[in-house]
Amino acid sequence: DDPYKAEVYSLGIILFKLIFKTFPYSPDKKVAEVLQRRPSFLTDFVKSSKNIYKVQPSAEIMDLLQNMLTP
User: What is the spatial distance between Cα 65 and Cα 37, in angstroms, rounded to a whole number?
Assistant: First the structure.
């Protein structure tokens, strides 16, 4: 495995937490697995009740998060 991918993934988790003030996964799931099964995870999250602060990130931020959190 590429150690740089792990670093980018970790930074993606931090960025998600900074933007949405919550983690992008439940303790029993890894966000990478969720994104592989459901590429629309981020879009769905923004529209869901889990987005308690109703944050509406730009398309560029959504694209960056998608790329950072996808293995």
Answer: 16
